[in-house]
Amino acid sequence: MATRWFFSAKRFAALHGAFIPLFVVAAAPPDSCSSPSTCGAAGVGGAPDGSVSCVYDTRVSSCGTGLVKASASGAYRIRIESASPNPPAKGMNSWVIRAVDASGGPRSGVRVAVHTQEADQDPTTPPEADPYMPDHLHWSGTTPTLSPNSDGTYSVGNMNFWMAGVWRMGFDIFDLSRVQSPTDLPEDSIYFYFCIPG
Predict the structure, then answer these.
(1) Phi, psi dihedral angles at 82 (to 5 degrees)
(2) Number of domains making up the chain
(3) Alpha carbon of residue 100 to chain centroid
(4) 69 close to 188: Cβ distance less than 8 angstroms
(5) CATH number at residue 53
C-alpha cells in the first residue's frame, strides 16, 4: 500500500508539476530616498505594521528632495530642491521647489502657484487648494503658502498632511508669455503623490 501511495505521489507531481507553485513572493521595491538619481521610484512608504495600505501604490513616490515630476503634456517640470521632513511625513511639511527644463536647468518665463480646484462647482465660493486626498475625496483644510525666492525657487509652507494615506500636492504652471490677466487658466499642472505613514 505504501508503494502504491509513493507511485501516485510521483505520478501526480509529474503530471501536474506546472501547477505546484501556488504563490509568488513579491520583491520589495528599492528605497529611492537614499539615491537622488533614482528618486521617484513608486511604491515605498506606509507604516511597518501595515496600517496604511498605500505601501505599493503605484501613484506614490518614496522621497521628497530631488524628486522631479512632469506635467501631463511633458512641457513643464518641477523639482523639489529640499523637503522638510524628507520624505514627507504626517503633520506640517515645507518644501523648496523649482521649475526646470528637460535637462534639469532652471525654467524661465513661468510662474508657479499652488493647485486649486472647485470643490462644489459653485463659482461664488473660493476653490480648494491642495494638499488633497484622492482616495478620501477631501482637502487638507489648511491653505499652503507659496512665495518666490530671489534664486528662482519657491518656498512652499503650511502643507498639512494630517492623516495617514495617499496625499496629492499639485502646482499650476502659468506661461508668462501667454497669461494676460489673473483670471487666466494655468497652462498645465504638476502633481506629486506621497504615502503618509501612520
Answers:
(1) -155, 145
(2) 1
(3) 18
(4) no
(5) 2.60.40
Q: Rounded to whole angstroms, how far apart are CA atoms 66 and 126?
A: 32
Rounded Cα–Cα distance for residues 41 and 160 (Å): 23
CA atoms of 22 and 87, how far apart (whole Å): 36
The segment with the largest mean pLDDT, out of 68-82, 116-130, 176-190, is 68-82
Model's pTM, two decimal places? 0.72
Q: Is the pLDDT of residue 10 over 60?
A: no
Entry field: residues in the chain: 198
Tell me whether residue 160 is in a domain.
yes
Bridge partner residues of 147 (DSSP) = 155
Residue 141 buriedness (CB in 10 A; 0-12 / 13-18 / 19+): exposed
Domain that holds residue 77: 39-196
Contact present, 173 and 71 (Cβ < 8 Å): yes
Q: What is the mean pLDDT of residues 99-128?
A: 84
Q: Which residues contact 179 (CB under 8 A, 6 or more apart)?
A: 111
Cell of 104: 534639469
Neighbours of 181 (CB within 10 A): 5
